[in-house]
Amino acid sequence: MERYIRFIQQISSLGAVFGGIILVFIMLLTVASVLFRIFGNAIVGSYELTELVIVVTIGFALVYSTMTRANVAVHIFYDRFSPSVQKMINIFIAALSLGFWGWMAWETLRMTIDRGWMERSEVFLFPLLPFRLIWVLGLGVLTLLLLALLTKGIFGRANK
């Protein structure tokens, strides 16, 4: 199980680095777009380009924040419970998250298969399939991670 989680951690870390690079690109594109608008010009397709590439950042940010437990938690109440109650809360949250994100991954995959190469972006006419596949990959890795955390929560011992 630990090897499996380490493998997912390596994928999510790589995705987080790539997502960070994309965020810098988006930031520079946004600043350039604002500066160009000040002088009466616009960068054609900057909004569309931002929409397309942010998929990578969000897809892997979900995995990375789940992996590092950087998501929002209410420790004021959670820390007051005994380790066995905390274990039950962790199991419940992992099961609920697994159900939601697993469903989201499945529906996105179905939509991607149904639409295939047909859909394209409006300005640049990029095919949307690669971006949807990246999103499905991120959700798939997140689902596998949540399954591992649920399994670890059920069969592991209670701890803080």
Fold blueprint:
Layout: H1 2-38, H2 46-67, H3 75-78, H4 83-115, H5 129-155
Low-confidence blocks of residues:
none
Topology pattern, helix = H, strand = E: HHHHH
**Distance between the ends:** 19 Å
Number of strands: 0
Task: Note the total helix count.
Answer: 5
* Largest sheet composition: none
Mind explaining what this structure looks like?
The mean pLDDT is 87. The chain has one domain. The chain contains 5 helices and no strands. It is 77% helix and 0% strand. It is mainly α and 160 residues long. The longest helix is centred in the N-terminal third of the chain and has 37 residues. The radius of gyration is 19 Å and the shape is elongated.
List keywords for this structure.
160 residues; mainly alpha
Could you give a quick summary of the protein structure above?
With 160 residues, the chain is mostly helical.
